[in-house]
Amino acid sequence: MPAMIELRAFMGLADTFRERNWDNPKTVAVTGEMTGEEFLAMLDLSPDAVEVFFVNGKAFTPDLAVVTGGDRVALAPQGVPGPYRVLLGFKKMG
Amino acid sequence: MSKFIRVDMASKAVKIEECPEQYAGLAGRALTSIFVANEVKPTCHPLGKYNKLVFAPGFLTGTSAANSGRLSCGAKSPLTGGIKESNSGGTFAQKMSKMDIKAIVFEGIPEEDKFYVVKVTMDGVTIEEAPAAIIGMGNYEAIKVLQAQYGPKVGVGIVGPAGEMRLTAANISFADPQSNIRSAGRGGLGAVMGSKKIKAVVIDDTGAGAVAIANPEEFKAASKRFTNALTTHPVTGQGLPKYGTNILVNILNEAGGLPTKNFRSGRNEWANNIGGETMAATIEARKGKTTHGCHAGCIIRCSQQYNDKDEKYLTSGFEYETIWALGANACVDDLDAIAYADREFDDVGVDSIEVSVTVGVAMEAGIIPWGDAKAMLELIQEIRKGTPLGRIVGSGAGALGQMYGLTRVPVVKNQAIPAYDPRAVKGVGLTYATTPMGADHTAGYAVATNILKVGGFVDPLGKAGQVELSRNLQIATAAVDSTGMCLFIAFAILDIADGFNALVEMINARYNLALTGDDVVALGKTILKAERGFNQQAGFTNAHDRLPEFFEEKCAPHDVTWDFTDAEIDEVFNF
Ligand code: SF4
Predict the structure, then answer these.
(1) Do B458 and A85 touch (CB under 8 A)?
(2) Average pLDDT in the B212-239 region?
(3) Which of A80, B46, B235, B571 would give a disulfide with B76, using CB separation of 3.0 to 4.6 Å?
(4) What is the ipTM of this complex?
(5) Residue range(s) defining the domain that contains residue B284
(6) CA of A47 to the centre of ligand 1 (A)
C-alpha cells in the first residue's frame, strides 16, 4: 500500500520544482522504506544537488536518510550559511 | 603613525595624538573592547559622563581586501549594563582607514541642551551645532540634509529620534554608498551617542591617500586567494547573493528552530510566505535588487533593495532576524508590512532585532493582537512620537516585559534573544547565555574548522559537543570582528582552509607581521577575556549567564527543552 510523504524544496531546488510544475510542498507516494538516494532517483533529482535531506526536522545526507510514508521531508542544496551548517549539524551529518 | 582622536563633548576640546602604544597592534572589536575595558569605569552610568564611545575600523578596512569595510563601535551598553561592540557596514570605516585614523573616542557630556555635528576632515576635527532641521528628523532625510551641507560623498554616522531620546534600543546608523542605511544595531549605542549630544559624525576623506600596505605584492596574492574562496563557495558565491540571510526562514522552520509566537513553538505553517525564496521572487517581480553590497568592496552582497508594490525603494539590509521576529515570533504573515517596519526601524534609529522582539512581547502583554500588521506598525510608530508607550517599546523587550509584569520575556542580560530557538539549536543557546554582549547570535558565528577543529557532527537537539562548539565559535568570531571583515566571510572559510590562511596573510602583508593562525585564536581569547573582565567589574556573575526559565518548557516539533546545568554553561568560558 503506498503512503504519502510531504516534500518541500528550498532555494534553487524550489526553482526546480517550479520549472517542473510541481507543488511545493508536494505530496509523494512511497511504498515501504526508501533511502534518501532511492527517493531522489525516483524524483529524478541528483543527490549532488542536495546537501541537506531533512526527515521530520532532522538533517541527514541523502545517503544516510531513510524515508517512509507519513514523513515530512525537505531538501536543501548547498548554500545554507556556514555557522548554521555547523549548529544544525549539516557538517558531517549523522 | 596612525592618529588617535579624542573628542571631549563637555569642553569641546579635540586631541589628535599618535596612537598610544597599547592600542597600536589592535583594530576593530579588539581595539574597542580593550579600550573600553581599560578606560571606561565599569560601574559608570552608561548614559553618564564617564562612559566613552569609540569607533574603530578593522585591521584590513580601507584596503582592497574583499568585504573588509566594517566599523566597530564600542562603549558600556545602556541596554545590558555590560561591554558592547556593535559593528556596521557603510562608508564610514573605509574613510577612517584612508585618513589613517585608528580610532575616534567621544567622551564627556555637554552641559547645554544642544545637539552637535562632529566633523572629521584631513585638516582636523570641528564640533558644530547640528542644523535645527535634522533634530527629530528620520535618518533617511537627515542623511540627505547632511550630505547636501557637507558634501555628497561624506560618510555619516547618525542617531535618529530614538538616540536623541536616549532609548536603550537606539542604534547608530551609517550611510551606505547609496546614502541608505546600515546600522551598528545592538546594545543601545545610539543612546550613548545621544547622551553625548552628538546628532551626527561626518567624515570627509578628501585629500587622503590610499591605505599603506607594507608588502603590496604579497597582499595582492593573498587577496586574490581570499576573493577566490568567497566567489567559489556556494554560500557566499550563490546562496547569499540570491536570497540574503532570509534564506534561513524555511531552513530553521524545517529544523524546528524558528521561534514562533514568542518562542512557543519552533515551527509554523506560514514560514514560506515570509521566507527568502518568496522574498527573492517578490523583489524580482517589483524590479528591486536581490543583491547589493553595504559597502564598496563587498563581493558577497547579501543585502538587497526591496521595493513596495509601486516598485519604489522601501528598504534594504532586510535581514532574516527582523523578518523572523515580526513574521514568525509576532505572527505577522505579511512580508510588505515587515518591510515597512524595517524601514521605520532604520529611520527612527532603533535595533531592528530588539524592537521586533519587543513587538512580540507587546502582543504577549495584550497591548496589540497577535499577527496584527496594522497594529504592529502603529505601535512601532509610537517610538518616533516619544509617547510613554513608544519610549517603552524603544527601550527593548526587557523594559516592556517589566512594565507589564511578564515572565515570558526572551532576553539575556536584558538583550533580546534572536532568531534561533536555543532548545532546538543548543549551541547558539550557550552563546546567548554566555557571550559578554547579551543574547547575540553573531557572537558565535565565525567558524574556522582548520584552526579551531570545529565542524565535527553535533546533534543540534543534544548537548554533546555544544560547550566546545560555542566556545570556539565565540573565540573565532571575536578575532574576525577585529579584521574589519564582514562576518559572512566565515561561511566560506568554514570549508575553504586557504581562505582563512589568506586572511591571516593579508594582515601580515598589510603590517609586515608574521602572525599565525594560533595568534589569531589567541587574539580572540584576549578580547573575550577583556570583555568578560569588564562585565565582572560591572557586577556580572555566572548567574547572569542564564536563559529565561520559560525555556524549560518543551518546544515543538521536537519537544526539546533547555536542559544545560549551570555547571555545564559555566564551562563555556573555562579557557
Ligand atoms: S555580505 Fe552583506 S553584511 Fe556583509 S558586507 Fe556584504 S552586504 Fe554587508
Answers:
(1) no
(2) 91
(3) B46
(4) 0.94
(5) 250-421
(6) 30
